[in-house]
Amino acid sequence: RVREKSFVGSFVGDNKRPTQHAGRVGRFCACAIKLNESLTLVERYDPLLGQWSSVVPMLTRRCRLGVASLNSKLYVCGGYDGSTFLQTVEMFDPATNQWKYVAPMNVMRSRVALVANLGKLWAIGGYDGVTNLSTVEVYDPNTDSWSFVAPMCAHEGGVGVGVIPIC
To answer: Which domains are delineated in the chain?
Structure first.
């Protein structure tokens, strides 16, 4: 369903493919990937037209990734490509219709939660192929760099994250 300010990534409009990851840029909602398949596929939903369309594929095939929007750009981070756990990060700019790599995270993270807050991206938890992660990294788009911040107390699996604005 598409709500006024959020997106739920499954069975919206005529898209009958279950999706796992979603982010919103402007009036477009972009979703990536069929469940547990490493793909480069990204689709965009226009709620005004009620239609899905493909956008330029990601540079790296991945599943179990983090997705968030920041400064009118869509970011994807980490994940798994079918053989390797990833620390790479890509940014999609709808104005140019292009993906580009930005600085990689400090560690590989599959099943990572990604959220935009305070002008930065926060990569929280995940799995590095060996263990569940309690570490948290923050991406600063002004310096194109990731920094570790205080970790979570514990991590027992996939992490969900959201931001509630405080007025």
So the answer is: 19-149 (2.120.10.80)
Amino acid at 10: S
Q: What is the pLDDT of residues 107-118, one digit of tens each?
A: 999 999 999 999
Chain centre distance of CA 38: 14
pLDDT digits 0-9 by tens, 18-34: 455 555 555 555 555 45
Strand arrangement, sheet containing 113-117: 113-117, 120-124, 136-140, 145-149
Residue bearing the bigger pLDDT, 21 or 152: 152
In the numeric block, the tokens 């490509």 are attached to 81
Residues 34 and 110: their CA atoms lie apart, in Å, by 15
Residue 166 has pLDDT above 90, yes or no: no
Ramachandran assignment for 109, one of left (phi > 0), alpha (psi -120 to 50 degrees), beta (any other): beta
